[in-house]
Structure formats: structure tokens, C-alpha cells
Amino acid sequence: MATPIPLRSLNRRSLEDRAADELRQALVSRQYPPGARLTEMRLSAEMAVSRGTVRSALQKLLTEGLVAQRPYASWEVVGLTEEDAWELFTLRAALEGLGAEVVTTGVMEGRIDPAPIRQAFSLLDQACASGAADEQVDAADFHFHKAVIAAAGHRRLLTQYERVAAQLQMLIVAANNEPRASTRLVEAHRPMLDVLLAGEPERAGALFRRHAWDAYLDVKAQGIDGAGAAASR
Questions:
Q1: With 70 as the cut, is the pLDDT of residue 187 above it?
Q2: Are 104 and 199 spatial neighbours (Cβ–Cβ below 8 Å)?
Q3: Which domains does the chain have, with CATH numbers?
Q4: N or C: which end of the chain has fewer CB within 10 A?
């Protein structure tokens, strides 16, 4: 079981949003393992914000499916079952497949600039080549896929994707949880970048759907521990 890492104190901005961002990152990176108990008092002290701010942040994460509320100001980190993984990866395949088709069509017609997607791929390539920390590689992996969805310019597609984004990030961490995963990420994503520029929407959609399904098979093969992720790296 991973040892919880104390959360950083926060400077003032939108405190509720910053607190939610900090907590989300801690949960996605498994600093707090599924099943762990979180209390508003402890989190308030660690982040140097009020319990009301912490409560608002946790309520946001509740809607994202990352935590569950327990009596007496206590919260619990939610785990994902194999069925959850299947649902999320099949949903990811549908959303990203559609996004890839829309982007490829838009690039072919000159309506969509692929530069942000190229940049996202470059960041992934750099993270893998530099031997960056696992968390940075996982973040760059997710950023590439999110960049494709954002580039589509499809507001409702982006809204649906963002509703499950945090849970998808948890499963990306699990899918990448195998030896030499970072070296294979660039090999897997380069054809995805190429197909977006090739002017073949159906092939682009099929490749992105296949990628999501292969990621599900990787997680399934490693075994879901009831906590929503494979064994620690």
C-alpha cells in the first residue's frame, strides 16, 4: 500500500479549485490508496485552508467519482473494479474515436490546426526520452489524448470527456504500470499523431478506439486489485 505523501500548502487563488486540483492529483497518482480514509480536519491542516474549502473541494471530487462521503466529516478514496475499468475504457474508446474522426476531418479541410496536438506529442516524447518521473510521463500521456479532444472543437464531447477525465487518468496510470511502458508509449502514440494528419477519419477513429481497448487489456492482464489500479510500480 502506498504511503500517503503530505499535501502542499496552497497560496490564495481560487482556493476551492486549487484544493480540488491538489487532491485530485494526489488521488490520481495514488498517494492516497483506494479505501484510504480522508478527514476534513487533516486535509485542512495540510493545505492550510479552511475545512469549508476542503469540503467544497471534496464535493467536487465526489461528482467525479474519486471519493465517497462517510459520516462525521470523513471521506474515502474510491477504488475501481474490473467492471468499472471496462466501462471507462469502452467509454474512452467511443469518445476518443469520435474526437479523432472530427479532428482528422477538420485538419483535412483546413479548419483545425494540429499544432497543439503536435506539441502534446512532443512533450510526451521528451518526458519518455528524458526518463522523467512516472507521474510526469502519465500526465503527458493523458495530455496528448485530452489535446485531441480539445482540438475537435466539439463542446459537448469535451464536456463528457471531462466528466470522467480523472478516472481515466487513474486507469492510464494503471495501464502504464508495467516494465518499459514509457519506451513503448512513444511507439504507440506516433502512429496516432500520423493518422490524424493523414486525411482518413475512419482509420483515425479505429486506431484510437483500438488503443483504448488495448490499454484496457493491459490493465485487465495485470489485474485490478479492487483499488482501481494494478500493483505499484
A1: yes
A2: yes
A3: 15-77 (1.10.10.10), 82-222 (1.20.120.530)
A4: N
